Predict the 3D structure of the following.
Amino acid sequence: MSRRLLCIALALCIPVCTWAQSIVPDWTMDGYRELNYPNELYYTGFVIERISTDASLADELKKIEDAARNSMAESIIVQIQSNAQLITQRTSQQSGGHFSEQIVSSYKQQISTSTDAITAGVEVRSYYDPSSNMGYAFAFVEKERLGEYYKNQIDLMLQRIVSIFESVDELVRVGKKIPAREKCTESMNVLKEIEQYRVLYSAVMGSNDAALQTDRYMTMLRLTEQKMLMLEQSTRIYVTCTWDGKDYPEYDGQAVVVEDLVKQSLSQQECSIVDHSDSADFVLTMTASTNQRSDGSDAYGIISYYANVRGVLKNCHTNKTVASFVILNDPHVYSAGKTDAVAISKAFKLQSLQDEIMNAIMPKIKN
């Protein structure tokens, strides 16, 4: 009984498969595509290729599907290239800034290679004709649907910039200029993406300032430029160091040495050194002193001294102390010499002293 049922099932299956393979989809015909997917409403790509017998049918169909998708993308890129120069010139003229020029000049290569954005929402169909060993693939997307996708992307990204600006303003308010500058760089990258979608929308749907949100976009562009220029002044720091070595008043010049070396180190970290505390983001107040480590009474007659520094870093925006440090009799911060003056002078110029000070304050300046 089971063998009889199997034979019946096979007999029923064979004509179904043959019938399925014999039906040629309507979209393989030029007339059908022209009637149902007119150029004024759709972007399309159609490919027909002979199927290789050296590869699997699934792989071969996938290959021609990709070819159809790329063919459709090329037709969009042609329109993009014809519209790109117009919209970028317009953006540059309206913004009129150096930063804006960076925005409008950076996206062209991205557009020509970003097929993911170009082909969003595309549908692809494929068919294999065993009688001719030919594979067919048809890619299409409705222009209005594609334009709506680009429009939504513009809106979402503009909202993202608003959020970035809020973060930038808060970071500036608490004196964290370095992270704020990094946030502005993020805004710049988002603006580049928006410009890409503006060009894509313009190419697909035509120029429409309301849909492109031109006024809002230009406002964000100018604000980003202004914030970047403001933050390019870097974090401003006022540095002072006084001598606190009561037992060694003749070496008070070492406080100036410490102050100058710390200023140099901060400048290398892209900080601006200012001359007045009322124009600073941070104030670093230090005191320097020394004490003897060895008096030269040993067999070698070597005298050594410690370089001691205490410091406090204050955030001028919050008026709070954000860091403090004490370098006192540190085994890594001393030097030796034949005389007191030589040993002390060498100790305050040690790189290890600068490193310890910078390690104590830079994380709070960058945070």
User: Anything to note?
Assistant: The two ends are 80 Å apart (CA to CA). The chain has 13 helices and nine strands. Confidence is low (pLDDT under 50) at residues 1-21, 103-109. The longest helix spans residues 57-95.
